[in-house]
Automatic annotation (TrEMBL):
The chain crosses the membrane at residues 6-27, 39-60, 80-103, 110-130, 168-192, 204-221, 307-329, 341-361, 394-413. It comes from Bradyrhizobium cosmicum. It is a multi-pass membrane protein. This is Cytochrome bd ubiquinol oxidase subunit I. One of its GO terms (molecular function) is metal ion binding. InterPro entries: Cyt-d_ubiquinol_oxidase_su_1 (IPR002585). Pfam families: Cyt_bd_oxida_I.
Amino acid sequence: MSFHIVFPAFSIGLASYLAVLEALWLWTGREVFINLFHYWLKIFAIAFGMGVVSGIVMSYQFGTNWSAFADKTGPVIGPLMAYEVLTAFFLEAGFLGVMLFGLDRVGPRLHFLATLMVAIGTLISAFWILSANSWMQTPTGYAINADGQFVVADWLKVIFNPSFPYRLVHMVLAAYLTTSLVVGAVGAYHLLRDPHLPGPRVMFSMAMWMAALVAPIQILAGDQHGLNTLEHQPAKVMAMEGHYQSHKDGAPLILFGLPDQATGRVDYAIQIPKLSSLILKHSLDAPLAGLDTVPRENWPPVPITFWSFRIMIALGFLIFGLGLFSLWTRWRGTLFDSRPLHIFALTMGPAGFIAVLAGWITTETGRQPFTVYGLLRTADAASPLAAPAVGSSLLAFVIVYFIVFAAGAIYILRLMAASPHHGEQGPSGDMPSRAAGITPASGAAGQGALS
């Protein structure tokens, strides 16, 4: 999951960025936009392909490692996954070839339509995947048949379950911020070498606008998502906050500490009195329940949930700080000359990926010990496999994934190390005009070759 999620997070944002670049090119006619489009299109193709390949393996795991889960929830989860394939994946696959190789063959307007369809397809894909995962977090619209399977009673309630809108907005904004940080880091890298390059200047300016405008929206969306989680998954919030004990007259915000699952306390806690109640209940003296109100067998693993949540929050505020810094330099007219800003943006390049990983770890570990929250325990959802069988296959995947990940990442970094230039070509730059068969030669040479 950790290997896979970074690629959809990148491709969702990058597909929309490519659509914006091509739209700006069609609107303004400026060459810099089409050069940037071709530059990022090559990177998108690699990230998209690696995301698809790693995602297929995850689908197989429903039948291999989680056969009991597949049997119990198949009538609900199966159609949602199928809708993702039938709508989003087919849309992306249908237009991806035109997007990658068709600019000189179908014309700019039809090519822009293909780019737009791929971008929309990535968002539709996020819609269905987040709907399925959100139903596992906040299940509604279901019934349980005689065989103990979850079946659909109301499709609208299944799809638009209580946590889905919050999680969809939070994830899509995270994908956009992740992409903007990568684009900004690449632009900063080249500006540090030459602040007068037109391509890096444009991409860096666009990335900093995205960070400055979307980061505060993401913080607000995250706050609303947290309030929704408090309503529907209170034990997850207790783990995130490190609240082992209930607080009747205002709960402190624990900034840092060492959660001890065995003793049920946070050691060496650095905390601000009553601030957690203010954030979650909007009142300093509002009572907040702790894990002491939850049966111990239903406790999430607090240490990992506690720390992954803090990593996500810290990176979120760093991104917000980067956006504010960029606004200040833009106002002063030094956006392209501020070496501290460029170094800051360069170091923040991987921050979006780390924040996405931390957010998903918070979400998935905080749901434990359930796969369908409150209804199906993880222990009852796993396949009846011996530990050595699972361990050997996991080890094989880890080895293969690290090789594939390293190869893909190194190639992407090599592409990023070169600056976008005049006459930048996309993936179709050096390809023949025909994809299959014999390309007829012209004149006598052609006749001789055919004879």
